[in-house]
Write a structure and sequence with these properties.
heterodimer; A: 800 residues; alpha/beta; Alpha-Beta Plaits; Rossmann fold; 5 domains; six-stranded mixed barrel; 34 strands; B: 170 residues; alpha+beta; Arc Repressor Mutant, subunit A; Glutaredoxin; 2 domains; four-stranded mixed beta sheet; 7 helices; 42% helix; globular; binds iron/sulfur cluster; binds FE2/S2 (inorganic) cluster
């Protein structure tokens, strides 16, 4: 380890580290523009000059490796002069329009020009004029301000894997940009605004909205998917103005995806403003005081036997506090065992097996994923389910890992080395079983996947949304465990089993027992309540009389939305939640709650890391934290919930599951996700026979619209990301040709008695004999065709 | 200079079979996993094949052939002045005005051409016959001043000689 001295302080660093890195470790700031800790070294801005004893000229510290005994000065006369000269050159072509620049006040160039810039220019010639590009709805450009640091080029190329920015022409004619009028396609473009050290690439929705110094900041955790990225929420006058990333090496490094960054504008749309009760005279929802609404809700709850009451919660949008209070309220205040959050799940057979956290979440920490040598994705499209997890997989593939995907269609991906195995819906278990047998047999020809898997030292297997919500999810999960067991990848040194439940806070809902068969902390119950499917079926046939909904709308989210609508129509509904939804419109009592960002909350990410997110802005005046609503409601019962403060509630959560004892954990420390290895419990389960022919329908949640806030964001609504328009039915061009259906044509999709009208779009990534649609589109609710037990619906199409 | 020009024909550029064979020969000069290295000769070939210049479609086509993202091909094509990103006439006349030629009075050569062709640098004649460009040193300083018409060099020029050369072009 070479030892060097920087400004009189001694430090030893890894061989090969640069002077810049050593200085950063010491906390010595060296001015820079092109250097970025997460990007490759460019060494082109020359701002990071330092003086090294015995070297005749100033040295570029970001590119110069340290050597033993170096003596570095970062603030000598030579250094200052050098930086002044560099700054003078940088400013030659800069428009110096700070007063009208979004970056003003938080601009590296402005700050460093204050320190090193000349007070007047010696340059009297024409400044260059650069072309601006339309980079899509997220980025505003003012390329005259570009200082050619190439961070944006390196980011799109190295990190985002969407090489669309470049430097064209050369010398003083060089221009940075995409050089075409195509908008950027990456799901990470927002990072460019944050990464650009000047005001060349700006956050478009934030354009002219506020000045950096007026903003107040809060530390948030993103809840728009289960990665749980660290964010800084910037707000002014109780309005979120923009979202920036906060560094967290274990999770998001320094990035955010566009969903997490831009969903905020959906926060204030379609909000429930005050408590409402259904009036007996007019049968309309009318505003009421909290006291009246809570009394009415309590009356209704008491009107039925406890077993006739059931609760459904949506994991995303709720804090762990809400989820905990919800299950405790139902189980111990009302006394019903019927509650669930798994409205999208079809296979509940795993409830009979004692699964724990290791079976239900990730076991390989995000920060270790990059070390995997073989990656197997089963029913998982990481780029559009958990973008920041996908970056880790991409890093692994860039470092040489091989990746395989088993999926019903071609994935949209940016992995370097991916083999796609398209498997017809329903054939997955047979496929994985075949793979297991291939691994078992010693003879003959093996598939590339079997070959790679057998040799893998650190394999990871990831089950995604499609696998988790598959009609044979448990059989798939068991195959996955068996595959890992075969290659010894379930040990404490390397556990490659990862079930990636991608919705925000899904892990908290499991941990804290918002399921019918477990109490918080994975304690199994003797008597199981009804699961989500059985609750809705019960409500539809009159066995369940009252539904308590926490931020969830089964008529949009459930596997079978026609069943859900019947259930809502036939039962008494009490709706607690932040947004107006069709379910709230059908409710007898509506109790307005708060959304993420409007209250402090605990959010658990897919590794099982519980994190606290601060409050940024205040919600509607009358709305209350959802757990407090439940607390007040419980006052009207014999046994109220035993906590009056958030701290008391958090202490109770911590007692039920020690991973929620956050005060005992160091900041950022990850409590071990895995106490024991995942259970196999016999292989395989009986498989449902699927039809070999006929058109099968697969309904997928559209990532950018997959939670209550994101769905309402007008910024996200503009993003298409290489896919056909939202809500269309994607069909293989040949199948469409046979059925005489053209691109953009209206079609009627029929399955037995049920049918839905929608718009077809031709998509070559879709295999023959399968069609794909988006979940939860109010214009064309494709889940209307899905029978909960019926596997993948077999449909026919008629052009209209 | 601020935007790539699209081809006006509407026909997507495709290499002929013969050109494709040449591409294969070019690829053989580089390791199999380094096909990107062939981008410059393939661009050059494309320029010959597609009428002396490279439209955006032609660049995108080359990108698919060598397996590079289009922007990386744009970077290469804009870096070198010898790739023409605008249509050029049948005769592309490139006058060197760099130091050696300039010392030997390339100014008068350039002026003679401008008068003769009634074109400024960077312009093409309306009949599609000539394009006049100013270029940097073409490596023939020993016989300065000089110019290049398509693939041929013309050296030791005088204004009178220039006029003669133009007149003799078929
Ligand atoms: S646009 Fe910004 S990030 Fe990109 S090269 Fe210019 S200054 Fe750097
Ligand atoms: S990856 Fe997930 S957690 Fe991170 S910013 Fe995007 S939506 Fe939020
Ligand atoms: S930071 Fe070192 S050259 Fe730019
Ligand atoms: S300067 Fe004209 S050929 Fe070299």
């Amino acid at each position: 380890m070479p030892t060097l001295i920087i400004d009189g302080k001694e430090i030893s660093v890894q061989p090969g580290a640069t002077i810049m890195e050593a200085a950063r470790l010491l906390g010595v700031y060296i001015p820079h523009f092109c250097y970025h800790p997460q990007l490759s070294i460019a060494g082109n801005c020359r701002m990071c000059l330092v003086e090294v004893e015995k070297m005749p000229r100033p040295v570029v510290s970001c590119a110069m490796p340290v050597s033993e005994g170096m003596v570095v000065k970062t603030d000598s006369d030579m250094v200052r002069k050098g930086r002044q000269a560099v700054m003078e050159f940088l400013l030659i072509n800069h428009p110096l329009d700070c007063p009208v620049c979004d970056q003003g006040g938080e601009c590296t160039l402005q700050d460093l020009a204050m320190k090193y810039g000349p007070d007047r220019s010696r340059y009297h010639e024409h400044k260059r004029h650069e072309r601006d590009y339309d980079l899509g709805p997220l980025l505003e450009t003012e390329m005259n301000r570009c200082i050619h640091c190439t961070r944006c080029i390196r980011f799109t190329d190295e990190v985002a894997g969407a090489p669309e920015m470049g430097a064209v022409y050369r010398g003083d004619h060089m221009q940075v940009g995409p050089y075409t009028s195509r908008p950027l396609t990456s799901e990470l473009t927002g990072n460019l605004a944050e990464l650009c050290p000047v005001g060349a690439l700006n956050n478009k929705p934030f354009h002219f909205q506020a000045r950096g110094w007026e903003l107040k900041n809060s530390d948030g955790i993103c809840a728009h998917c289960a990665v749980g990225c660290h964010q800084r929420v910037d707000h002014l006058n109780n309005e979120v103005k923009r979202v920036m990333s906060r560094r967290c090496p274990e999770i998001n490094q320094t990035w955010l995806c566009d969903k997490g960054r831009f969903a905020y504008d959906g926060l204030t749309r379609e909000r429930l403003q005050q408590p409402m009760v259904r009036s007996e005279e007019s049968n309309q929802l009318v505003p009421a005081s909290w006291a009246v609404a809570l009394d009415r809700a309590a009356d209704l709850l008491k009107r039925f036997k406890p077993e006739e009451v059931a609760g459904l919660a949506s994991e995303s949008g709720q804090g762990a506090e809400e989820l905990y209070a919800f299950q405790e309220f139902l189980r111990h205040v009302v006394g019903t065992p019927h509650l669930d959050h798994r409205l999208r799940q079809r296979d509940f057979s795993a409830d009979e097996v004692p699964l724990t956290r290791a079976d239900l979440s990730m076991n390989t920490p995000l920060s270790q994923l990059g070390k995997a040598d073989v990656i197997l994705l089963i029913g998982f499209e990481p780029r559009y389910e958990t973008p920041l997890l996908n970056l880790r997989l991409r890093q692994a593939t860039l470092a040489g890992a091989r990746a395989f995907a088993v999926h019903p269609r071609q994935l949209q991906h940016n992995l370097a080395n991916l083999t796609q195995l398209v498997v017809r819906p329903g054939d997955e278990v047979a496929f994985l079983d075949g793979l297991l047998q291939e691994l078992g047999s010693s003879d003959g020809h093996r598939s590339a996947l079997a070959e790679a898997w057998q040799k893998a030292k650190q394999p990871v297997l990831l089950l995604g949304n499609y696998a988790i919500h598959h009609p044979q999810a448990e059989a798939i999960r068991r195959c996955a465990v068996a595959l890992l067991e075969r290659v010894g990848a379930l040990s404490t040194q390397w556990n490659g089993f990862n079930r990636v439940a991608g919705r925000g806070n899904a892990a908290a809902a499991q941990d804290l027992g918002v399921v019918p068969h477990r109490d918080p902390g994975y304690r199994r119950l003797e008597r199981h309540g009804r699961n989500a499917q059985q609750i809705l079926q019960g409500a539809a046939n009159g066995e369940i009389r009252l539904l308590l909904l926490l931020g969830c709308d089964p008529s949009i989210e459930a596997v079978d939305t026609s069943l859900a609508r019947t259930a809502l129509a036939k039962s008494v509904v009490i709706y607690i939640g932040a947004q107006q939804t069709p379910a709230a419109e059908m409710a007898a009592v509506v109790l307005p709650g708060l959304a993420n960002g409007e209250r402090p909350a605990t959010l658990t990410n897919l590794e099982g890391r519980a994190q606290r997110s601060d409050m940024a802005v205040m919600g509607p005046v009358q709305a209350k934290e959802d757990w407090r609503i439940l607390r007040s409601l419980s006052d009207r019962f014999a046994k109220p919930l035993p906590y009056n403060t958030r701290e008391a509630l958090q202490a109770r959560m911590a007692a039920a599951d020690h991973r929620y004892a956050l005060d005992g954990l160091e900041a950022g420390e990850l409590s071990a996700a895995c106490d024991h290895k995942p259970v196999t419990a016999g292989l395989p389960l009986a498989t449902v026979a699927t039809s070999k022919d006929g058109l099968l329908l697969v309904v997928e949640p559209p990532f950018f619209q997959d939670d209550a806030i994101a769905r309402r964001s007008t910024i996200l609504a503009q993003l298409t990301l290489g896919r056909s328009a939202l809500g269309t039915l994607r069909i293989n061009p040949e199948d469409a040709g046979k059925a005489n259906i053209g691109d953009g044509q209206r079609v009627r999709m029929i399955c037995g008695e049920r049918n839905v009208e929608c718009i077809a779009s031709l998509d070559a990534n879709v295999p023959a004999q399968v069609v794909f649609g988006d979940m939860g589109q109010r214009a064309a609710l494709l889940q209307d065709l899905c029978d909960w037990d019926g596997g993948f619906p077999q449909v026919s199409l008629v052009g209209l | 200079m601020s935007e790539l020009q699209k081809s006006s024909s509407g026909v997507p550029p495709r290499f002929s079979e013969e050109a494709m064979r040449q591409v294969e020969v070019i690829f053989q000069r580089y390791p199999a996993d380094r096909r990107e290295s062939a981008v410059m000769p393939v661009l050059h070939l494309a320029q010959r094949e597609f009428g002396g210049w490279l439209s955006q479609e032609a660049l995108d086509y080359v990108a698919t052939i060598v397996g590079m993202p289009p922007i990386r091909v744009y970077e290469v094509a804009t870096f070198y002045t010898m790739y023409n990103l605008k249509p050029v006439g049948k005769y592309h006349i490139q006058v060197c005005t760099n130091i050696s030629c300039w010392l030997c009075d390339s100014d008068s050569i350039a002026q003679a051409l401008r008068n003769k062709l009634q074109l400024s640098f960077g312009e093409s004649s309306s009949d599609g016959r000539f394009t006049l460009s100013e270029v940097e040193c073409l490596g023939a300083c020993i016989n300065a001043p000089m110019l290049q018409i398509n693939d041929d060099y013309y050296e030791n020029l005088t204004p009178a000689k220039v006029s003669e050369i133009i007149d003799q072009l078929p």
